Amino acid sequence: MPLHLPFDTTYLTLPDRFYTQQAPTPVSDPALIVFNHALADQLGLDTAQMTDTGAAALFSGNDVPDTARPFAQVYAGHQFGGFSPQLGDGRAVHLGEIDSPVGRVDLQLKGAGRTPYSRSGDGRAWVGPVIREYIMSCAMHALGIPTTRALAAVTTGDPVLREQGPLPGAVLTRVAASHIRVGTFQFFAARGDKDALQALTDYTIARHYPEADGPAGLLDAVLARQASLIAKWMAHGFIHGVMNTDNVQIAGETIDYGPCAFMDVYHPDTVFSSIDYQGRYAYSNQPSVTHWNLAQFATALVPIMPDQDEAIERFTEIINRFPAAYQTQWQAEFAAKLGLGAGDGDGTYALAQDLLTQMAHSQMDFTKTFADLDQTATSLPDWHGKWRAANPDDALWRSTNPKVIPRTHMIEQAIGAATDGDYAPFHALLSAVSAPFEPAPEFMRPPTEAQKVRQTFCGT
């Protein structure tokens, strides 16, 4: 028996140029890999009568609920600094929205077949990227980092052709506060479609920021969410890898887990993405890139303002607040990681920066160093003395720094096994990263030299 999904989709009240309505493309032999029962409970879904067969049919797109009105969204975006005027859901179909106990959310099937926005793509996903996003999003949620969520993953029974050859196909069910992106605004701004831009602004404010006073209030609210989000990324050594404006979600969640990774050895210039040749999205560049992306958002809002010169001045003032807003959030995150109060801003900042500098020089593991701060008495005795002199709260730093992260080599091992039909390593890793502050010795060890993964790939 399938799961009942009470869809109530408000995005379709927007003009039809915002989306294309279409059903997912059926697959031949869907089978359930994993279902997120905890998330289903949070969404208020009754899973008591759900069978694996019913779930597989639903989350593959074969069994579309009567309440669903499937569609693909259109958007634009700056990709590595160059503007692409039309992008969109090239391999994803939205089933709709649910008004849940934790708020209104979208349910989207990733890998659900071709759409009008697929360009040269096949609209499908293979099991590797699906497993990666499932693991990463569950880990991020467990770490307290705002993120889209994974509700289910299924195999399709159909091969997907990639450079490596035929690979097992899969579909991920993604849950998000919404899929409205900076690039959604850019799509209509680039076309001079003020009516659509105004409708999108009004809809976004009503759905996500009802306290916001017009476009300026929306910009200010989105900026605050992004400052907090990026500070959390930085505090956990997370590198998104593709911070294009079409990957910046207006609600402030981490979205689109492509060539992402958590650092092993710390260095501020670390890059993983195989296509980031210039290091545009390196770890240390993430705050400045976010600042730039927010400026593109502000630019997209200007056309609907009655006095555009005044709007540019007002929006510039708001955008210029980002560095200070981010710095405040960064200091709060790292103060907690060091077990210190956020009140001593300058002292905490200096202590954290000193540690990071020495970690980079000594090629120390990011997660392990913070999880074992007391061990710096041996590795970094001078710094340890300064830190102890600041009287840190041991209970705070121990509860703030994870012992387990989804290390890239472990994800690759899980993907390799899953490609051969063995999902045991995936489930074991998923269990460990879902409780990141609990010791799990098998998953706490940094990679050996032979295990290190130095490049990641989008997998699309």
Give your account of this protein's structure.
It is a single chain. This protein has 17 helices and 12 strands. With 460 residues, it is an alpha+beta fold. The strands form 4 sheets. Strands 2, 6, 7, 8, 9 and 10 form a 6-stranded antiparallel sheet that branches. The protein has a two-stranded antiparallel sheet with strand order 1-3. A two-stranded antiparallel sheet has the order 4-5. Helix 4 (182-190) packs antiparallel against helix 5 and helix 7 (286-301) runs antiparallel to helix 8 (308-319). The radius of gyration is 22 Å and the shape is globular.
Q: Tags for this entry?
A:
alpha+beta; 6-stranded antiparallel sheet; two-stranded antiparallel sheet; 12 strands; 42% helix; globular
Radius of gyration: 22 Å
Distance between the termini: 32 Å
* Mean pLDDT rating: 96
- Helix-strand string: EEHHEEEEEEHEEHHHEEHHHHHHHHHHH
Q: What's the overall geometry?
A: globular
Main beta-sheet annotation = 6 strands, antiparallel
Strand content: 5-15%
In percent, how helical is the residue content?
40-55%
